[in-house]
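As practice, study what follows.
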Amino acid sequence: MSESFDVIVIGSGPGGYVCAIRAAQLGLKTACVEKRATLGGTCLNIGCIPSKALLQSSEEYEKTIHALKDHGIEVEGVKLDLARMQARKQEVVTANTKGVEFLFRKNKITWLKGAGRIVAPGQVDVDGAVYAAKNIVIATGSESVPLPGVPVDEKQIVTSTGALELDKVPGHLVVVGGGVIGLELGSVWQRLGAKVTVVEFLDRIALGMDTELATNFQRILQKQGMTFRLGAKVTGATTGPDGVSLSIEPVKGGEVEVLKADIVLVAIGRHPYTDGLGLDAVGVALDERKCVKVDTHWRTNIPGIYAIGDVIAGPMLAHKGEEEGVAVAELLAGQAGHMNYDAIPSVVYTWPEVAWVGKTEDELKAASIAYNVGKFPFTANGRARAMGDTDGFVKILADKTTDRLLGAHILGPDAGHLIAELTTAIEFGASAEDVARICHAHPTLSEAVKEAALAVDKRALHI
C-alpha cells in the first residue's frame, strides 16, 4: 500500500470536496481522488460556475441594450466582445478551483491525482498506486446523456460543455431538451443575439417544476424571443459546412421535418458516472438507472463504501451533494449526519429566475393531500416596480388543516435568493402564518413572500 487514510473520497465536485473538508475538520485523515488537472468537478469547471458567469455577463449585455433606456440611461455604440466574456468566465472558474485547492491545503487533505478505481473493500487504485482506506466515499457525479442518432462533436453538435465554449454567437441554436441546462444556456446565447429553438419530447418544459410555474415561465421565455417545439422528438442529425440538419417529428406521429441550425445543444439530462470505478468487481449494487444504491445513511451494500451526490438517486444538484457530503463525514466521525430531502431548493438561473422547494401542486394532488394556496404577483410589489422586473409571482402551499408549509414556488427577480427564507421555514416546520407574521423590510422583493403567506389565509394586504 502507498499510504493509508481514514477516508478516501473519489471525486472532487461539490459533494466530494465538501465531504473531504468536513471529514478533515473532524480529525479524519482524508484524501480526495481527482483525475482533472483542477479540483471542483463538473460544477466548478464546466457546469454551474462557468454557466452562471456567462448568464451574468449576457444579462448585463442585454440590459445595456434594451433595459437601461427605461431608466433614463442612453448608451451608444454597444459592442459584444465575446472573447473577453469567455476570458472572464475562465477567470471566475480559475478563482473557484484555486479556492478549493487552498481549502485542501488548509485542511491538510491529500489530493490523489489520477483516476480512482476501487479494487477491493478498503482499497483504491489511483493510476497504479493502491491506497488503503477505512472508508471510501463515491462522489463521481454525472455526465450528459447521449441522444441516439445525434453524435456530439462539441463543435456543431454540443453538450453543455461545448455550449460554454463557443467562440461566436450562432445564428440559430437548437436546444434539444427543455430542462434547466438547456433553458439556461439557450438564454445566454439568445441574449447575445442567437435565434433559439427548444425541441422538447414532452408537452411541457421543465419537468419537475410546478406546472403553473412552468406554464408561466414558458410564456415569459417566448416573450423574450425563444421558440418552443413541444411534443417533438429528434430522430437524427447530419453536419456539414452549412451547419446541422436536425430531423424532428411529432411524438404522436406525423411527418418528419428538418430544422437547420448553426449549433445543436443536446441537453436531455444527465446520468450517474459509474463506469471504470470497479464497482462490479467489488459488488457495489446499482439500480436500473445505474445509480449507486444506498440506504438512509448513504451506505452501499458493501461495508465501508458510501456514495453521495449525482451518482445516487435524487435531484442532481450541487448543494444536495454538498449536504450529503457533510452528513456522511459526520456519520464517519461518530456524529449524527442530517439531510432533509423535503427542504432542498431548486433554481433556474434565467431572468427572471425560477426557484422552488418542497412539494408541487401536482405532487400534493397525486397524494390526495388537502392544501391551501397563497399567491402574490410581483406587479404589486413596490421594489419590483422600481427595478422594472414585474414578471412572475410567489406561490405558497400550506396544509389545509395544520397550515404547515408544504411547498413554495417563485417565478420572478432574484427568486434564487428569495427561496432561502422559505427553505428555512420548511426546515423548521413553520406554518404559512409564521412567515406572514415576520416583519419584512420595505421596499424589498421579500415582501412578496410575506404577502403570499398572508394570501394563504386570504388576507394579502397589497392586492
Notes: The longest helix spans residues 82-106.
